[in-house]
Amino acid sequence: MMRIVSLLPALLLFAFMSTQASALSWRTSCEVDPGAIRRSGSSYVFSTSKNHCTGGIFKQRAELTSNDFSVSRKATYVFSTSVAMTAKSREPFIVFQIHDGRNGCSPPLSLRWQGNGSLSFDSDYTKGKGMAGCVENRSLRNVRYRGPSLKRNGTAYLLKVAMTFDGQGAFDVAVSVDGKPVLSGKYAPPSDAQFVRSKRFFLKHGVYSKNIWPYEMTSQGLRVSR
Q: Backbone phi, then psi, for 86, in 5-degree steps?
């Protein structure tokens, strides 16, 4: 009995560490129009919604957001899901983000699904002055996509985003589609003191676009692993 009792603290610590290493949790970002996000287990269906968040110029948003994690945490996360878009429109949209809570400017990283079926990175530095304080991060924006043309006819694609955070505000990111690398790059925090450095990170997933247009996107088997 004494032996079992003496092991309890170690077992509790192991349980705590296992919980810490588990996937990030998800919730709806701001609010959405009724029925715009439907869930069944680890699968979600996104459809057109007005943007209920404040700030920015994008009018349509049906997104999930994860819990925050510290910028000072060294960690590797792998976001994965089987995603299928059904739409007649070729409107570009953001399907995934690494955000820090800023308003106006693009976050440290957005993954944009373009109208021509390619993917691209958006990334800005911010002076904390809304749209007037945005400076494009060309090192990520100029990365070339090397992958298949993504169709909007309900075809499912396995999307993975691997992220390695260095604990100093920088991270490496690599995107694959159906197991093939298509985009990769690195975000480094601004060295100039006029720019605001990130104090937290969180992930976002869904459909975020400048204009409102009809669509339905399924995301099956959504998970974030470490």
A: -120, 115
Q: What is the pLDDT of residues 158-180, one digit of tens each?
A: 999 999 999 999 999 999 999 99
pLDDT digits (tens, 9 = 90+) for 31-89: 999 999 999 988 999 999 999 998 778 999 999 999 999 999 999 999 999 999 999 99
| Strand ranges for 41-132 from DSSP E | 43-47, 60-66, 69-70, 74-86, 93-99, 109-113, 119-122, 124-126
Nearest C-alpha neighbor of 163 from the set 226, 86, 91, 89: 226
Q: Comparing 158 with 131, which gets the higher pLDDT?
A: 158
Q: What is the fold, at CATH topology level, of the domain defined by 26-225?
A: Jelly Rolls (2.60.120)
Instruction: Count Cβ atoms below 10 Å from residue 221 Cβ, excluding itself.
Output: 12
Alpha helix (H) residue ranges in the chain: 2-20, 138-141
CB-based contacts of 91, cutoff 8 Å, min separation 6:
115, 209, 210, 211, 213
DSSP 50: B
Distance CA 210, CA 214 (A): 13
pLDDT at 23: 56
Does the pLDDT of residue 117 top 60, yes or no? yes
- Proportion of the chain in helix, strand, coil states, percent, rounded to 5: 10, 45, 40
Check if the beta carbon of residue 113 is closer than 8 Å to that of residue 215: no
The residue whose two tokens read 């920088």 is 170
Q: How many CA atoms lie within 13 A of 171 on its CB side?
A: 27
